[in-house]
Design brief:
Blueprint: E1 7-8, H1 9-16, E2 32-33, E3 49-50, E4 52-54, E5 60-62, H2 66-72, E6 78-80, H3 89-96, E7 104-106, H4 119-122, E8 130-132, H5 140-149, E9 155-157, E10 178-180, H6 189-198, E11 204-206, H7 219-225, E12 231-233, H8 242-247, E13 256-258, H9 270-280, E14 286-287, E15 290-291, H10 294-308, H11 318-327, E16 343-350, E17 353-360, H12 365-376, E18 383-388, E19 397-398, E20 416-421
Parallel strand pairs: 1-5, 4-6, 6-7, 7-8, 8-9, 9-10, 10-11, 11-12, 12-13, 13-14, 16-20
Antiparallel strand pairs: 2-3, 14-15, 16-17, 18-19, 18-20
Subcellular location: Cytoplasm, Cytoskeleton
InterPro entries: Leu-rich_rpt, LRR_dom_sf, TBCEL_Ubl, Ubiquitin-like_dom, Ubiquitin-like_domsf
Main location: cytoplasm
């Protein structure tokens, strides 16, 4: 249901966290805080506020009474204001400046691109460590202003902002560890390399759903651009050649990679994709969210050698020669047909006669009896069958269930089936 327009932060706060909607419960682990009543705050005794406030999709357009915000929110550490109608950074600043212990702020899906963020307003965000600006269409100028005023910022989310390019900040942000910039339109590596320049301490880079087509950079340059990168997510990027995968080895600290849904891997089976990637990326310990165990790495590297052993020399990757040096030249794996046998040759014994026959194992006992009717000259209703496994220690087993399939008996070549007339 649509929320009414023009609602203030304080109005929504009072409504949502009133005793009727958010009753205070005593007990360990509830995470609810009731600050002491300040002078001149008639509403103070009526609100029970947790340290994590979730006020998304409430139609908030402005801050409201700043003194009340300061009185109620002194203990708040996380604030979710996503999907509201905040379009003025001044109003956001009025809220944040009165939440002194705020560390996490989510402003996703607010129309904040309609106003300019001035540095004095951005200064009120100084203590924030995690900032989410997804689908806010925040300009790079706004991002730069934030970076200059948030000295402790560690995680920044810039998804769904329609970025086609990256604008370099005049100063580096040494504190940022995680950048989440998925679902944009970044296609050229020259734009991605700017992120390495701006965020030299980056630990995690999430680039999923950008149509990045190639990694155009020398190995030495990649190591300098992302010297601390531990994890990279390239899900559904446009990478289409193995050389781009090999270049990931240039990141000196990389140990986690996500690479699902890229054009390069479409023609391979699930097993081939994982093994070929593991073999090419010797330093990673987690691939697509799954730990790479030592045994799996060795299996993958041996698979890699056998996979490329029949390729022309000019098509064999350098990694192949490295692995041959490690394991030696391997013999091709023997081809073993693991499909179940469809037919066997058995001896049919009836009275004093013995006849060798080939029988299908997918048929039932009843169907076998029909097949034997002309051989032993007995009707199916007057026929008893006994199966003798040549290695069985207990003698013949009566085949008394008409609907039972022959393969369930484990019949093999050389076994015997005895036919006897039913005693009347």
């Amino acid at each position: 249901m649509d929320q009414p327009s023009g609602r203030s932060f304080m109005q929504v706060l009072c409504e949502k966290y009133s005793p009727e909607n958010f009753p205070y419960r005593r007990g360990p682990g509830m995470g609810v805080h009731v600050p002491a009543t300040p002078q001149g705050s008639p509403m103070k005794d009526r609100l029970n506020l947790p340290s994590v406030l979730v006020l998304n999709s409430c139609g908030i357009t402005c801050a409201g009474d700043e003194n009340e915000i300061a009185a109620f929110c002194a203990h708040v550490s996380e604030l979710d204001l996503s999907d509201n109608k905040l379009e003025d950074w001044h109003e956001v600043s009025k809220i944040v400046s009165n939440v002194p212990h705020l560390e996490f702020l989510n402003l996703s899906s607010n129309p904040l691109s309609l106003s300019v963020l001035e540095r004095r307003c951005a200064g009120s965000f100084a203590g924030v460590r995690k900032l989410v600006l997804n689908n806010s269409k925040a300009s790079w100028e706004t991002v730069h202003t934030i970076l200059q005023e948030l000295p402790d910022l560690e995680e920044l989310f810039l998804c769904l902002n329609d970025y086609e390019t990256v604008s370099c900040s005049p100063v580096c942000c040494q504190s940022l560890k995680l950048l989440h910039i998925t679902d944009n339109n970044l296609q050229d590596w020259t734009e991605i390399r700017k992120l390495g320049i701006m965020f030299p301490s980056l630990d995690t880079l999430i680039l999923a759903n950008n149509n990045l087509t190639t990694i155009e950079e020398s190995e030495d340059s990649l190591a300098r651009l992302f010297p601390n990168l531990r994890s990279i997510n390239l899900h559904k990027s446009g990478l289409h050649c193995w050389e781009d995968i090999d270049k990931l080895n240039s990141f000196p600290k990389l140990e986690e990679v996500k690479l699902l849904g890229i054009p390069l891997l479409q023609s391979y089976t699930t097993e081939e994709r994982r093994k070929l990637l593991i073999a090419r990326l010797p330093s990673i310990i987690k691939l697509n969210g799954s730990i790479v165990a030592d045994g799996e790495r060795e299996d993958s590297e041996r698979f890699f050698i056998r996979y490329y052993m029949e390729f022309p020399e000019e098509e064999v990757p350098f990694r192949y020669h490295e692995l041959v040096t490690k394991y030696g030249k391997l013999e091709p794996l023997a081809v073993v047909d693991l499909r179940p046998q469809s037919s066997v040759k058995v001896e049919i014994h009836f009275q004093d006669k013995v006849e060798e026959m080939s029988i299908r194992l997918d048929q039932t006992v009843a169907e076998l009896k029909k097949h034997l009717k002309t051989v032993v000259q007995l009707s199916t209703s007057n026929m008893l069958l006994f199966y003798l496994d040549q290695e069985a220690p207990f003698g013949p087993e009566e085949m008394k269930y008409s609907s039972r399939a022959l393969h369930s008996y484990g019949i093999r070549d050389g076994d015997k089936i005895y036919v006897e007339p039913r005693m009347k």
